[in-house]
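Take a specimen:
=====
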Amino acid sequence: MSDDLSIWLDGAKALLPGAVTLRRRVHEHPELGLFLPETVKAVRESLEGLDVTIEEGPSSSGLMVTLKGPSQGRTIVLRGDMDALPMPEDTDVPFKSRVPNAMHACGHDSHTAMLAMAARLLHERRDRLSGTVKFMFQPGEEGHFGALKMIEDGLLDRHPRPDGAFALHITPNIPSGVFSSRPGPFMASTDTIEITVWGKGGHASSPHHALDPLPIACEIVLALQSMVTRRINAFEPVVLTIARIEGGTTSNVIPETVKMLGTLRSVSEHARKTAKEAIPRVATNIAKAHGAWAEVTLTEGYAVTVNDGRMVDIAREAAREMLGDAGFFPMPSAVMGAEDWSYVLQKIPGCMTFLGVAPPGCDFHTAAPCHSNRMMLDEDAMAHGIALYAAVAERFLDRGFAA
């Protein structure tokens, strides 16, 4: 095997038109959740003619595509998620979403296209592979636990079981074509907070004859923020946001109940546990102090995404060998977004790496971010993503985690 990784970048550039075509097709017809028939059809058509096996489980539209090299050895899984977000698109691109209230605002269309072209690229040069590559086309990342569904369907553990795992995620808020990652906590856990405060309704002119739950709810919100700063280690940060407060019907009626909805994010399972134990204690006791009653429901979301530093090293060195030292920079801290790739990394050592896709002529600091109704990306950067998928796969299969 040659150690020259430029072959992957050259090959990826040749495949870029195909990636753009596939990305735009998927972008124009976004699908939500676990079952994505049109997207899967596009992926399958993009893989036609390849000597690969394709498996699909009963719980979702997830595909596991397996490419075997000429010799048996290690196995790596590469992942691209495929689902869109339930939101309108407000861009003027000619391939704008045709589906009302559905948009690829998190770049999963580009992930799908890059992974499909990486499969073609690695297939073209499979004589360089000293092992097996699995391509995980995953639905339901946006809150539907798609990765966990594929794991539960047994698709990840089928022989040969992966020894390493690698995923990319685009962001418009990094310079185009540049990669960034870090060892350890990479993205946060996420849990949903629901709090209902019960008081006693009455006339707004006579609050002393009622038990107003609204100021109690406001006090709970402020107390939860104090709890985070006073009870949680500052070096294990937690973000707690109450994003919705709903109560009342008009200006002169004190309602009986107030409902609150929020999110809890953490990059430490210990801090997450501490906060989850404290939230009901704070809310119920503040309500009780005022003679009211509160009920708290915590719905567990994705786990902390924790990168294995050894795979980060492989990605960093591969990126810099192909693109120069400026092609990769270390992330100073984790981000508070969440990923169900976390469940794969709980089972298999690996990592996720960001790929910058700041649109041409746009300052990456102020570019519309992922989940924005105006998010756009530099499609040329996908060539770098395709190349890194391939380079990391080859390097891991050849060397594993050896220095």
Observations:
- The two ends are 17 Å apart (CA to CA).
- The first strand starts at residue 53 and ends at 56.
- The chain is about 35% helix and 25% strand.
